[in-house]
Amino acid sequence: MNIGVNTLFLIPGEVGGTETYLCETLDHLTDAPDVSTVLFANRENISLLSERYGRSARVRVVAVPCRAASRPQRILVEQFVLPRHVRHSNVDVLWSPGYTTPLRCPVPMVTTIHDMQYRHHPEDLTLQARLATAILVRGASRRSRLILVPSAFSRDEVVRFTGMPSDRIRITPEAADPTFGVETPAAESARRIAALTRRTAPYVLMVSNTYPHKNVDGGIRAFAALQERIPHDLVLIGKPRLGEPLIQASLAAINDPTRFIRMQRIARSDLVALYQGAAAFLFPSRYEGFGLPVLEAMLAGTPVVTTRGGSIPEIGGEHIWTASPDSTPEMSARLMEALSLPSAERNRRTAAARAHAATFTWQRTAQLTLDALREAASAGHA
Helices in the chain by DSSP H: which ranges? Predict the structure, then answer.
């Protein structure tokens, strides 16, 4: 089978978990011995994709004249230029891993819709982006042979908001990188953490770009409510986004500014060390289609305090502490419980959480994705 992959949405370092999902799935999908892959690349990602996959004899990277940083240009190219490249590339099926796909295409299509966040949290997008997303996601659900989603929660959301029949939706759960579960030697971990934080205090970790629905400001308030009772710092890793004014307002509640440490781009090895070294991981998001950071923290052996937002309870199960994203007292109480665990109980709970997280693998994600692509291709043209 010859698979086409629409990567026009991908701007390296800018699309968060969707980039992780695409690259990790491709790493395993392209290992299949009877599969060839054509990656349709934009100007921003062609170097990344060529370096990561271009050396394989079964992978071909095709340049599409598209600058994805211009959303209008990307949409136009995806609709009117990409189908011509698909036709000339002799692929059997087109997979679009980033919500949208051409509305007309010469081969069957499979599209991943990670969530319906834009319906619940329109404040994350400009008006123009909301309108375009609504049209394109609904169009993708109607024109695609199958839709892939990362969770049962997202499946139900897609059915609810697009009218897509559930029998045309396949769940392909995501996974955490196994390196999060490989313990960093204590001395190396301490060195990395000290170099990154320039502090020696224990810390609570948050990993999130500051979109309004991520509720990072709520997490800061929950931490601030405990600051007189705990010695911990709060470390935030993430880029400024549309929720930044809320973040700046919430920081006023932290009496000592040195106890709030913020980072943006860091190396994967540093991220792993920070996850593993944290006293607790705080993820106050209001809405998730999957919630990959929760799984990463669980695999790292760190207690997770999060919310009942979206798919999070489905992914974390009984291994996480949950609170309402709108209740600072409840979130603070759950965080205090996690930080106050006796050592033996902490070890027991984090071991069970790590074992649960390890059941999610990218190999399984890739296999389920490949199964769906074969199914769509064998069904013939849409």
Answer: 17-29, 46-53, 71-80, 82-89, 117-120, 127-143, 152-162, 186-197, 216-224, 244-250, 268-277, 292-299, 312-316, 328-339, 343-357, 362-378
Condensed to tens digits (0 to 9), the pLDDT of residues 130-173 reads 888 999 999 999 999 999 999 999 999 999 999 999 999 999 99
Q: Do 97 and 127 sit in the same domain of this protein? A: yes
Say if residue 82 is in the same domain as residue 111.
yes
The Cα–Cα gap between 127 and 123 comes to: 9
Band (pLDDT 50/70/90 cuts) for residue 124 is: confident
Structure tokens at 107: 């081969």
The pair of three-digit structure tokens given for residue 54, joined into one six-digit string: 């271009």
Residue 160 sits in the same domain as residue 256: no
CB 328 within 8 A of CB 338: no
- Rounded to the nearest 10 degrees, what angle do helices 268-277 and 186-197 cross at? 100
Question: 82 with 30, same domain?
Answer: yes
Domain coverage including residue 169: 2-175+362-378
Q: How many structural domains are present in the chain?
A: 2
User: Is 338 found in the same domain as 216?
Assistant: yes
d(CA 243, CA 81) in angstroms, rounded, equals: 34
Q: How wide is the angle at C-alpha 61 spanned by C-alphas 7 and 380, nearest 5°?
A: 65
Q: Which residues contact 171 (CB under 8 A, 6 or more apart)?
A: 148, 149, 150, 151, 152, 155, 368
Which CATH number is 221's domain given?
3.40.50.2000
* Same domain for 197 and 334: yes
List C-alpha distances in Å: 232 to 19, 278, 302.
32, 10, 15
Digit-coded pLDDT (tens) for 188-201 = 999 999 999 999 99
Q: pLDDT band for 265, please (50, 70, 90 cuts).
A: confident
Q: CB of 182 within 8 A of CB of 193?
A: no
Distance CA 111, CA 164 (A): 12
Instruction: List, in sequence order, every residue forming a beta bridge with 4; answer none if it has no partner.
Output: 38, 94
* 160 shares a domain with 186: no
